[in-house]
Amino acid sequence: MKKVYLLLLVILLSTSIKAQQTNYRASKEIKHDLVHTKLKVAFNFENQTLLGEEWVTAKPHFYHQNTIILDAKAMLIHSVSLNNQKLQYDYDGFELTIKLPKSFKKDELFTLYIKYTAQPEKVKQKGSKAITSAKGLYFIDPLGLDPNKPTQIWTQGETEASSCWFPTIDAPNQKTSQELYITVPNKYVTLSNGILEKQIKNNDGTRTDYWNFPQKHAPYLFFMGVGEYEIIKDSYKNIPVDYYVEKQYAPFAKDIFGNTPEMLQFFSKITGIEYPWSKYAQIVGRDYVSGAMENTTAVIHGEQAYQMPGQLIDENIQENTIAHEAFHHWFGDLVTTESWSNLTVNESFANYSEYLWLAYKYGKNEADAHLFEDTNAYKNGQNYDKHLVRFNYDDKEDMFDAVSYNKGGAILHMLRNYVGDEAFFASLNKYLEDNKYKAAEAHQLRLAFEAVTGKDLNWFFNQWYFGNGHPKLDVTYDYNELRKTVTITIYQTQPEDFIFPLTIDVYEGTTPTRHQVFVNAKEASFTIPYKSQPKLIQMNADGVLLCDINENKVLSDYIFQLKNVDHYMHKYEALHEVAKRQDDRNAFEAIADAMNNEFYKIRKLAVEKINLSNKFSKRKEIAKIMSLANSDPKTLVQAAAIQTLGKLTDPELASVFEKALESKSYIVMGKALVALYYVNKPLAVQKSKDVPLEVKNIIATPLTRIYLLENDDSELAFMASNVLSGMFLSRDKSTQLLYKEAYEKIGKSNNTIAIKNLAEDVVVKGKQYKQYGFDQVGINLLRQMIQMQKNANGSNEKKNIAIIQEAMTKLLQ
């Protein structure tokens, strides 16, 4: 599962922090083992229900059993039988307790037949921040009433929602093979786990597709997708690799997903285990409830995966997610977490696979930048007190957080660094080989590493997997010029005890001498000799240790660090610190020099941070930024350069902005429109009106900025469709404020279409993010709009208020 981090700022600020529960969350007791699951399903689109028949084969795990309990949420159970003999059962809407005709002993197989109706709209269990709904089966525009949305069906099983569409033992420590017969109208294609072995045309305009998956996997990985898709064929060796996309994105499917075969090859090589499944398919689902999901051989992505060439030229924002879900086919699908407490043995590996892929494909800088951003996401959340492996939690859904994912990935990076690459990947291989098609936990991971390396790793796992927090270090330096030594003293200020290896680089010139030390106490000192007075001492030089470091660096230290230290994390830190002091000539010149850095993210950051309004001559720097705007190999740097030049409001730069409007990059085009507006308003407005419709929503933010500055009421309906995303899902504060202004302008307006667009979006997002409390935020927004309409007293006041009140009614349903 790849999460989407939502920045619902209003809600997050008002949400109280729950105390960690003390109840022990045991793994689900295994009374029966699932063996095989055969399903036949059809759909009632109008009622949004599934008509199902199931043959579930199971056996007692150890003790004799005369009943079996299956998870089955919000279903109608029509009949249960064994060998044509009807069985007695009890059903409470959550569990189906079936009385067996005799006491079955260990490993004695039996196959139950169950006829049922699944009613996903009546499911009561809630989702999480990672998976925003938990009803298992989703009908998207089932009656085809929305002209902007196709009819689709898709499922989402994690954590325990597969039991919303078929009875099962819905636990990650179960494994079953499966067969699935899906009956749909002929116009739809289907996707499920395994291979499509047969298609049967029926006499009523429907077709039955037979999907067979003979290998074992967990019930939460079952998947079913239905819709009008184009199937773009690809392959890895002799294994089909398919991309299911809506027709308009078919020409770009390989641009989005086309690295998948190379990922499968790379992951097969580093794990030492060839891709273990019969196919690899990816499908994009509308209104999907998370980022993506690793259903075995049938991955689903949210619609953010859809990108046009003008976006892909900047970066493929889905590529990390594609890698993440692919690696899950080893860690999560082949070997599955034994319990949700051990979720990190799934998610930390998928998270770290993003680093591994980026380093392999694009180089160490790209990977280090990604790891740094991920680690900061963990640190900036309320995560310090959470254990990586948690046997005490409020709800299993709470395990899907930046600890299980981001911190877990950082811990794997530290483990790899400690044991070495060869041992690390050999240990992964052993863990996978020993536990394939089974469930496992962190202890088994430790045992695999110990078996390969011969090292006792209890200390590592106890503090990082079964403990919480991370080192917080105060560092001091004591120079002895007579002896030519520096004593580095490290104080750990966090309450937990940590021991760890640490890398220290000492710069006597521009090339460092590296020292490896091991910190094994709350206070530790290390004396390092030098020949000449060090210009800089860089702690955690390789960026491996997950920690916070407090040390007394001055501006000259940061300038030297920016110019000479290679690791992205330290360059980023130095650039931010130096940028604060550009009133100093050396600091300004260091920022200007960083615009020449070989790594584009440093160039981009330097361009964004440089202060062109200070007292120093800037002609050379402006010329450099113009050059970056015109010809930097990265369009993201070009866009940053245009935005920086735009702040100068210099008419002489108009030609740079006009040229940028011809860019294939939508972000460059958007930045150029805003920059041009401040030096040639008529041309910028004209160009904004000429933007093709399919591009308009992609560059909605710069267009909204122009339309607000122009007070252009004719574009209110367009702005309304993007207001909520801009106000609540943007990371940029200026963007949030921009859309807040747009919201207030629309709320006061007489424009009925704009009011309707905004109100409908409030309903959609209010329901989509209900678990965050966004339904209540939506109600408040609608109430404010009613008051704004009353205060404005426009000619359409009554009509507009009626539209808003209707939206409130829908949101409250």
* Largest beta-sheet details: 8 strands, mixed
CATH topology of one domain: Immunoglobulin-like
Strand order of the largest sheet: 5-4-8-2-1-11-14-13
Helix content: 25-40%
- Euclidean distance between termini CA atoms: 30 Å
Total beta strand runs: 29
Under the CATH scheme, the architecture of one domain is: Sandwich
Mean pLDDT comes to 94
Name of the CATH class of one domain: Mainly Beta
Number of helices: 28
| Regions with little confidence, pLDDT below 50 for 5+ residues | 6-21
- CATH superfamily of one domain, by name, is tricorn interacting facor f3 domain
C-alpha-based Rg, rounded: 29 Å
Overall SS class: alpha+beta
What is the 3D form?
A: globular
Question: How big a fraction of the residues is strand?
Answer: 15-25%
Which descriptors apply to this entry?
813 residues; alpha+beta; Immunoglobulin-like; Neutral Protease, domain 2; 8-stranded mixed sheet; globular
SSE topology sketch:
Elements: H1 9-14, E1 32-44, E2 49-60, E3 65-71, E4 75-82, E5 85-86, E6 89-91, E7 95-104, E8 110-118, E9 137-140, E10 152-155, E11 176-185, E12 189-192, E13 195-201, E14 206-217, E15 224-227, E16 230-236, E17 239-245, H2 253-257, H3 260-271, E18 280-285, E19 292-293, E20 298-302, H4 309-312, H5 319-328, E21 335-337, H6 344-362, H7 364-380, H8 403-419, H9 421-435, E22 438-440, H10 442-453, H11 458-464, E23 472-480, E24 485-492, E25 500-507, E26 512-519, E27 523-529, E28 536-539, E29 548-550, H12 555-564, H13 568-579, H14 585-594, H15 600-609, H16 619-631, H17 635-646, H18 654-660, H19 666-677, H20 681-689, H21 693-696, H22 700-709, H23 716-720, H24 723-728, H25 733-748, H26 752-768, H27 774-792, H28 797-812
Parallel strand pairs: 1-11, 17-18, 18-20, 21-22, 23-29
Antiparallel strand pairs: 1-2, 2-8, 3-7, 4-5, 4-8, 6-7, 9-10, 10-15, 11-14, 12-15, 13-14, 16-17, 19-20, 23-24, 24-27, 25-26, 25-28
Helix pairs in contact: 3-5, 5-6, 6-7, 6-8, 7-8, 8-9, 9-10, 12-13, 12-14, 13-15, 14-15, 15-17, 16-17, 17-19, 18-19, 19-20, 19-22, 22-25, 25-27, 26-27, 26-28, 27-28
